């Protein structure tokens, strides 16, 4: 019990951690004002429903009495109330949705900010610390959290007020019932209240018993559908590799397996729902007659008029509905709990990452006294393993062209990541001169989806360079045919060949004219002539740019002033050493 309380209080704390920031943000007054209006409208709906029920009773009384004047009067009253109800119901939903989107927009901005700041998105991925699918957290869970938090809290308030109002109405309508018990006459005051409570609690309990597996089954269904969809997306993303290797049979088997789970689970949902609908339909039908049946004796005895009978029946229905909300609410609560837990997991992972970034030993970034790149006493490590992967000491003077070589997996790309400042794992110092413009060209350049112009000018905006300059850069790297397609939208990563994508990246470098250019096997997909042409272009067009390349081909040495190589030291750790050879 104590541990259960601890779990609940921890969960509520988590909810508070997620909820508080918006309600105390710069938007707080607008948000609180909007919430106050929505609460008032919700209470307004309950109030008007109570009034409507009473007018409804009076209409039947007028009918019974054949009092046409009173009948018309009550009808007009009913019409006025119904109009008010419609207006309140419309704005209750409209303002609720307005608050949802404002809150969600604020939270999304904040989560996106946290995710992008300090390359958190990258570090979370390389450290792999338990936050799967951050995209789902930001796109779906934030929406779910906002929607469920509002619907649960407002639902709680509205149903509580409805329950109290209609219980009071039922109490005043039902009078007391006298039942013979052990030869005595026992009076049960407000007996309809007890009957309604029994009926609602009993019925909902039975529905809960029959439909209980549904919560789990629905949860599983979402997961199986997502797994199936993900397998299809993987095929689309890796279409070429799979087609080349003839992996269709394997993939097809995977699809069939995953889809079979979707179908199996669906059958279980169907069976459970069938049982539930048998019950709920019967329960719903009986609910129309049941209160009439129970209250009828007092009507026939003349104790209450027809209107009171009808009003009793309506109030009974409202009580039953409100109570069912409380008992059924567990499904939404489970959903809310899962969503909140996923969001809080993401929030914690980001906080922890920030904390370790602040406190854990890591590679220091410090610009040296001059304009050189300095890598000093660097011990590169992996995120999960503090043992050194590569030791490096390197100074590169401005204007130099240096080639880095070494065995596959020896840590060359990781060294570049450290120089770029996105790899903090390890010790030592790395410093690029402050204010220097650096550009990194990886082996597989990123191609944003959109126009070719946007792909060539990336990471600057598409209009950052004159159209003529962009066209000229594409022609220079040997892609004249693309120069006329700058405004064509496409999935360029799939449309262009590997070598063409690498040439687009070179065109980027020509446009941006960085002071420092880092090339990580940036010409590996090009033929030797194209590679030579690209490096010659760099020398001609960017004579002042310092170049540091990673590459395996010996032909690359001709385009560099010197070469450094990663070699395995006596202790098995890679060490970066200068290679004495005539190059250039
Ligand atoms: N996020 C990571 N978590 C664990 N290990 C990693 C991670 N990133 C890289 N590694 C490992 O670090 C080692 C060095 O990788 P790196 O990419 O720097 O090698 P490389 O010298 O550039 O290789 P190649 O020449 O094949 O490109 C590899 O063994 C790789 O598996």
TrEMBL record:
Residues of the ABC transmembrane type-1 domain: 36-335
Top-level taxon of origin: Bacteria
Bilayer topology annotation: Multi-pass membrane protein
GO molecular function, one term: ATP binding
Domain ABC transporter: 373-582
Location relative to the cell: Cell membrane
Keywords for the protein's UniProt record, in alphabetical order: ATP-binding, Membrane, Nucleotide-binding, Transmembrane, Transmembrane helix, Transport
Transmembrane segments: 29-50, 70-95, 145-171, 191-208, 276-296
Major location category of this protein: membrane
PANTHER family: ATP-BINDING CASSETTE, SUB-FAMILY D MEMBER (PTHR11384), LYSOSOMAL COBALAMIN TRANSPORTER ABCD4 (PTHR11384:SF59)
Name the UniProt record assigns to this protein: ATP-binding cassette transporter
Organism listed in the record: Azospirillum rugosum
């Amino acid at each position: 019990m104590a541990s259960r309380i601890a779990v609940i209080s921890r969960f509520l704390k988590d909810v508070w951690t997620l909820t508080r920031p918006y309600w105390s943000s710069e938007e707080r007054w607008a948000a609180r004002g909007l919430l106050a209006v929505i609460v008032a409208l919700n209470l307004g709906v309950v109030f008007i429903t109570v009034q409507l029920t009473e007018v409804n009773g009076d209409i039947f009384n007028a009918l019974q009495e054949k009092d046409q004047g009173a009948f018309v009067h009550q009808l007009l009253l009913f019409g006025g109330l119904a109009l008010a109800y419609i207006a309140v119901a419309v704005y209750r939903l409209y303002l609720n949705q307005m608050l949802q989107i404002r809150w969600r927009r604020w939270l999304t901005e904040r989560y996106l900010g946290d995710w992008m700041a300090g390359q958190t998105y990258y570090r979370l991925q390389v450290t792999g610390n338990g936050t799967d699918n951050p995209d789902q957290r930001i796109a779906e869970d934030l929406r779910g959290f906002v929607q469920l938090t509002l619907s649960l809290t407002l639902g709680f308030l509205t149903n509580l007020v409805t329950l109290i109002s209609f219980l009071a109405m039922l109490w005043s309508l039902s009078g007391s019932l006298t039942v013979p018990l052990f030869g005595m006459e026992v009076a049960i005051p407000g007996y309809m209240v007890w009957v309604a409570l029994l009926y609602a609690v009993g019925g909902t309990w039975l529905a809960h018993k029959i439909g209980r597996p549904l919560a789990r089954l629905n949860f599983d269904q979402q997961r199986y559908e997502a797994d199936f969809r993900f397998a299809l997306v993987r095929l689309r993303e890796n279409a070429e590799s799979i087609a080349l290797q003839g992996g269709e049979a394997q993939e097809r088997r995977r699809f069939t397996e995953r889809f079979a789970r979707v179908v199996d689970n669906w059958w279980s949902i169907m069976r459970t729902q069938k049982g539930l609908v048998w019950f709920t339909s019967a329960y719903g039908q009986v609910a129309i007659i049941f209160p009439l049946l129970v209250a009828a004796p007092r009507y026939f005895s003349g104790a209450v008029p027809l209107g009171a009978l009808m009003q009793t029946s309506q109030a009974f229905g409202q009580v039953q509905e409100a109570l069912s909300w409380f008992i059924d609410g567990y499904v939404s609560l489970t959903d809310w709990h899962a969503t909140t837990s996923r969001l809080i997991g993401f929030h914690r992972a980001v906080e922890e990452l920030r904390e370790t970034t602040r406190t854990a030993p890591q590679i220091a970034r410090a610009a040296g006294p001059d304009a050189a790149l300095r890598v000093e006493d660097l011990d590169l490590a992996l995120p999960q393993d503090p043992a050194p992967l590569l030791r490096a000491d390197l100074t590169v003077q401005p204007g130099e062209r240096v080639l880095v070589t070494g065995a596959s997996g020896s840590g060359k790309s990781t060294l570049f990541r450290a120089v770029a400042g996105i790899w903090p794992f390890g010790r030592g110092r790395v410093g690029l001169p402050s204010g220097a413009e650096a550009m990194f060209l990886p082996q597989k350049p990123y191609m944003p989806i959109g126009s070719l112009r946007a792909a060539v000018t990336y990471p600057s905006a598409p209009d950052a360079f004159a159209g003529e300059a962009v066209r000229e850069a594409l022609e220079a790297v040997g892609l004249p045919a693309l120069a006329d397609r700058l405004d064509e939208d496409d999935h360029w990563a799939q449309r262009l060949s590997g070598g063409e994508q690498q040439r687009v990246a070179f065109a980027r470098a020509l446009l941006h004219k960085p002071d420092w250019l880092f090339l990580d096997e940036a010409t590996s997909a090009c033929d030797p002539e194209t590679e030579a042409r690209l490096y010659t272009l760099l020398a001609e067009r960017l004579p002042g740019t310092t170049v540091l390349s990673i590459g395996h081909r010996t032909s690359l040495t001709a385009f560099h002033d010197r070469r450094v190589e990663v070699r395995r030291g006596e202790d098995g750790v890679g060490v970066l050493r200068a290679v004495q050879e005539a190059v250039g």
